[in-house]
Amino acid sequence: MEKHFKTAKTPSEAIDRLQAIYDASTENLREALKSYIDDGTPPDAKARAKGAFAYPELRVHYETDGSPPPISRAFGKFSEPGLYRLAITEPSLFRPYLEEQLGLLQDQYPITIETGPSDEEIAFSYVLDGSQDIDLDKASAADLVRHFPYADLARIDDAVPNGERSPSPGEARPLGLFDAPRVDYSLQRIRHYTGTPYEDVQQFILFTNYHRYVDAFVAWAIRQLKEDNEYESLSAAGFVTVDADTRNPRAAVEGAP
After folding, report:
1. CA 107/CA 100 separation, integer angstroms
2. For residue range 43-81, what is the model confidence (pLDDT) as tens digits?
3. What is the rounded end-to-end Cα distance, in angstroms, of the chain?
4. In which domain, by residue range, is 63 found?
5. pTM of the full structure
6. Which CATH number characterizes residue 21's domain?
7. What CA–CA distance (Å, rounded) separates 134 from 130?
């Protein structure tokens, strides 16, 4: 079924639209899960076909009669004209990146930016945080995966980053290396292995094999919270957050699950 795409005049407008689609899809998925668990009502197949649970998709059309202009940077550029597309997850989380990249393209090329629902659906397990009214103990995993989209690493396509896919003539090209299902899987992996919300993870992750190094960093971070600097809070393992007003912050961090 053909899905409706809207043209955006600016990168900011496009990301607002991506976020609206993403929010609607996650809410539709939560409500469908709740209905199924409460009374056994399966999700509407027609609604799914129209994109009820879909990730938003970003499309960029670049058409030109000649060759693309020479640009020395390795990003924010086209190698050839055509339609480029990418399913996007968590648009607000990636907003600065998306605005920068789309802005670079729009400054250099005559492009059309479009947004709409993609053909990829959001896994039901990714929308459960904060859903206190959904009791998964009432349904079996087998039932849920039969009726709802689910996370399956075997179905994640790494052909683009592995350099194993060459688009056929007229076929849409990837706008990025990693599509929404791959990015979501990676975000959940970060959340699982760090014990912190992935929204709190910053540019670098340091690995250590000695707990005393972690203790030293926590102690240093807590001292920074008392100083006059840019630090506002410490997001610690166990989904614990402390700030300058937290009583005995070290105990709060050390007492986390």
Report:
1. 11
2. 999 999 999 999 999 999 999 888 888 888 989 999 889
3. 47
4. 6-194
5. 0.89
6. 3.30.1730.10
7. 9
